[in-house]
Design a protein that fits this description.
Blueprint: H1 2-20, E1 30-31, H2 36-62, H3 67-96, H4 109-117, H5 128-148, H6 150-172, H7 194-209, H8 218-243, E2 246-247, H9 261-277, H10 282-287, H11 290-297, H12 299-320, H13 327-366
Antiparallel strand pairs: 1-2
Length: 367
């Protein structure tokens, strides 16, 4: 599916950002540290879009949402691999006594471990997991409200998204008269990027509501996808130019623009809409390529495990002491291949069995 490629694109953005932060960039003029948040935005929008669509279809068919089945599916999708990685990181820290904050770590020992296991907190890349779980818990109820009371729910969600967006923008640009960085926009807090999820939910609801009325001529679809493609390219280009330490001939580092999450969310909703509804278009074909789909299918493993891979590659690089022309690109490619192989193994032996087990529990519940 092309949407697997969209997910893979989100993973690639995060991978490029984090690898650049460890001097594993593909080229000297592509040091893309700082753009990782945008990959997370895209993943959050896509996740809320897909889950909202699934829940709305179930409401159309059955008149309700089987909450037990929904939570079983989400739990068995996330918990097996997440718990394996969390427990492994904690065990490694306890055995070696090391706590590399530049890679994966769990702060506060056993107390920190427990907070991670109950999705209360997330250190380093784990911060996204509590955010996801929080919105997974809320999403079926939001979707039911959209299906039953859309005239009330849509304006409420829109107002919440707008108010939260305006508030966070003012906070990050230091134009808010209150405390400069309250907890609600702290990077480890569950409510960060509330508007990103809400925009994805409302976008999926609108596409579902008008699904039988969206009949456009091929020329109109071509124009629409061209507009979306240009908006996406312009947004990502500007982001890299003002955020990254070195992007082509730009050398500037200002992280504030990446927190315009509402803007990215709107463009990403339009992208997902065009890719899903116009599969014969060039955007859908681009995201249907094998590399992006490969990264998208393995996306959860790739996201959780790329830091340990970077750690091992960097340690090997330092211990070898060998320098040569193009070594950054070589180690970047080596990291990408290693992440792909390790993610393939964890998907095959941890994620996939967990998904199958969740489906069996779901079927037994429905009998």
């Amino acid at each position: 599916m092309s949407l697997d490629g969209v997910r893979g694109f989100a993973v690639l953005i995060v991978f490029l950002s984090h690898s650049s932060g460890r001097e594993l960039f593909p080229a000297d003029f592509l040091q893309l540290q700082g753009i990782g948040h945008i990959g997370v935005y895209l993943f959050f929008v896509l996740s809320s879009w897909l889950l909202t669509s699934i829940v709305l279809r179930e409401i159309d068919e059955t008149g309700t949402v089987r909450l037990g089945s929904y939570f079983l599916r989400r739990g068995f999708r996330i918990v097996p691999l997440y718990f394996c990685v969390i427990l492994s990181v904690h065990a490694y820290q306890q055995i070696t006594g090391s706590e590399s904050r530049y890679y994966l770590y769990i702060n506060d020992g056993t107390a920190g471990l427990l907070k991670h296991l109950v999705f209360y907190r997330g250190d380093t890349v784990f911060w996204t997991i509590p955010c996801e779980v929080t919105f997974y818990l809320l999403l079926p109820f939001i979707a039911m409200a959209l299906a039953k009371r859309p005239r009330i729910t849509v304006p409420v969600l829109a107002i919440l998204a707008i108010l939260f967006s305006v508030w966070t923008v003012k906070l990050y640009y230091r134009r808010w008269s209150g405390p400069p960085f309250p907890k609600v926009v702290d990077i480890v807090h569950h409510s960060q990027f509330l508007e990103v999820f809400l925009i994805g939910v409302v976008g999926a609801w609108a596409a579902h509501l008008f699904r039988d009325r969206i009949v456009l001529k091929p020329l109109v679809w071509r124009i629409l996808e061209s507009v979306v493609a240009l908006a996406l390219i312009a947004l990502l280009w500007y982001l890299c130019a003002v955020t990254c330490e070195k992007f082509l001939w730009y050398e500037r580092s200002d992280y504030r623009f990446r927190f315009q999450s509402w803007l990215f969310a709107l463009v990403f909703v339009a992208l997902i809409f065009v890719v899903e509804k116009f599969p014969q278009g060039y955007l859908a074909r681009f995201f249907d390529n094998r590399i992006l789909r490969f990264m998208g299918v393995l996306g959860f493993s790739w996201y959780l495990l790329h830091f340990p891979i970077f750690y091992l590659i960097t340690a090997f690089r330092e211990q070898s002491g060998v320098t040569f022309s193009g070594e950054n690109a070589f180690y970047f490619l080596l990291s990408w291949v290693a992440c792909g192989l390790v993610s393939l193994l964890t998907f095959r032996f941890i994620e996939k069995p967990g998904i199958s087990l969740g489906r069996r529990f779901e079927r037994s519940q429905s009998i």
